[in-house]
Structures are given as C-alpha cells and as structure tokens.
Amino acid sequence: MIYFWPPFLIACFLSFVFTRMTIFLAWKTSLIGIDDPKKHHHPKVVHQYPVPRGGGLPIFLAVFLTSLFFLVPDKHWWGIFFGALITLVVGLFDDKFNLNPYLRLFSNCLAALCVVGVGIGIAFVTNPFNGLVRLDQPQIIFDFLGQTRSIWVLSGLFGLLWIIWNMNIVGWSSGVDGQLPAFVFVAALVMAILGLRFSVDITQWPVVVLSAAVSGAYFGFLPWNFYPQKIMPGYSGKSLAGFFLGVLAILSGAKIATAILVLGVPTMDALIAILRRISKGQSPVWGDRGHLHHKFLDLGFSKRTIALFYFFSSLLLGLVALSMTSQQKFYAIVMVFVTLLAFSVWFKLFFEKRK
After folding, report:
1. Which is nearest to 19 in space by CA: 170, 237, 173?
2. The pLDDT value given to residue 40
3. Backbone dihedral angles phi then psi of residue 131, each to the nearest 5 degrees
4. Which domain holds residue 24?
5. Count of domains in the chain?
6. Which of 26, 101, 173, 209 would be a feasible disulfide site paired with 285, CB 3.0-4.6 Å?
7. Considering the entire predicted model, what is its pTM?
C-alpha cells in the first residue's frame, strides 16, 4: 500500500487547492469559461445558475505533479502526459468557446495516438469463453535510426479505439453535480487495486502510482463539484477522466473487461444513447437530454441521490469485478446492459406517456 497512499493523498490535496484557485481565476478573469444556463440553451443543461467550467486544469496539474514526484519520466510517461496535455488544452478551449464535437473527436485521436505511438498497447485480450485473442499480429517491421522497430497493427488500432471510446462515453455521465468525479474516483481506485495485486512485479508500481494520483485528483475535486456545485468538470475534466481510465486499463495488464464493468453504468448508458440517436437518424456525437441521469431527474431524484447512485453502483461493480472470472465479467456486463435497456424502454413506454 506504500505505492498507493502517498500519491493518492498528495494528488487529493493538490487537486483540492488547485480547484479553489481555478474557481477564483474563473470569476476574476476571462481565462476560464463559465457556463451560464441563460446563455447556454441546451436540453441537457440542468443547472440553474452560472458555474465555472475548467475542472480539467486542477485535475491535470494534480496528476502531473504527483506522478512527476513519484515516477521517473520515460517515453511512456511522456507519451501519456503529452496526450493528456492535448486533451487539457482542447478541453479548456471547449469550456470557453464550445467547440464543434467533430473537432473534439479529432483531438481525441491525437491524444490517443500519443499513447499508442510510444508503444503502449495491448498484446492480447482474454476470450471470456476460451483462451486468448492475440493482437500482436500482424506486425510491420522496419529500420529507423539504425534500429529495427515494429508496429503491432491490431494492438495499435485496438488501443486507439479503446482510449477514444472512453474519452467520449465517460464524459456523457457528467450531467449533475458530483456525478463524474464520484465514479471516476472509484474506477481509478479499482485500477490501483489491480496493480497492488501484482505488486511483486515492479512494472506494476508506476501503474499503482498513476492510478492513485488519478483517483486522488478526482476525489479532491469532488467537494467543489458536489451539490451545490461551485465548479464543473467541463469538457477538459470529462475527457481527461476517460483518457486516464482508458490508459490505466491498458497499463494494468489489459484489464478491459474489469474497466468496462466498473464503468458499467456510464458505458451501457452511452451505448444505449448511441443506438437511440442512430435509430432517430441523429449523429451519435451530438448531446441530448436522454441519458440515465436525465431520466432520474424526471423521476424526481435529487442531484445528490444521482451522484451517490453512480458512486455506489461503480463501487459495487468494481468490487464484484475484482473477484470474477472473465466469463463471469462478460455475463455481468450483459446483465447491466439489459437492465438499463429495460429501464429505458419502461421509461419511454410508460412514464413519458403517463407524464
């Protein structure tokens, strides 16, 4: 546990302090975007008073400084944080100017390429029914600067799509106060526990440190974002959450099924939202007011209750995932999807008609 608590506590403290400074900066200058519901008219907006965005700034600084203190930067470290920096900069611009979703998606690709480009990838994934699915073939082998290098085609593509997917779907579950940092704190905590299980392997120590820093940063941000929120994660904080969690799932030994399960509610809600938008002939990247937290609000749940639901559901699924086999995780993921799909159908057919 020595690899977890110091980086967790330091990142938590830094995030808490930097978030307070970011709030002050947002109100005193024009550098940080402020979301005013009277000016920002969109069905998904549920807050009723102006709130600063830009939550990614204190989170990035907390994770960056903590990992810089505990880890020795190598090419993998630089690849991760250069991708995170791209995510932060584009996110802050979006928090201020509301960029086009396709431009944001392009920046997601650049950030993911920074990670895959330094050799962080997935050699195989576990087949839940039998054996492994190998991703280390085919390879493109070439000479560069006097050294023989190789590109694992399937591994690179899978890692690229996995990180981009998480950068988008995680952020879709951030509509109410405290919702996003609550479940991101838990998800990163589960990644740290996975690393601690194999702490005899020194290659997992950096994974534990980075997971602890991410978990601590979002936990330190949570008091300022919990109802009534004084700052929002903004696109910067949302996309950074998906970026870090996607990378951590790869670094922790390709624990993709574990990551999907601990993020089961946000992931399946996003998948249902994509299917709903496509069925209506809409672009899947344009937001709407049809996510799970919107349905809970329509049913009369408070914002506090919704944030706590996401926290405890992620905690429960995370604890369950740590004790399951790959096949059991697969069935659990399907069960979460079917449950949320059934709830969405009930909401559409019965509640909206009655309303």
Report:
1. 237
2. 65
3. 70, -150
4. 5-354
5. 1
6. 101
7. 0.94
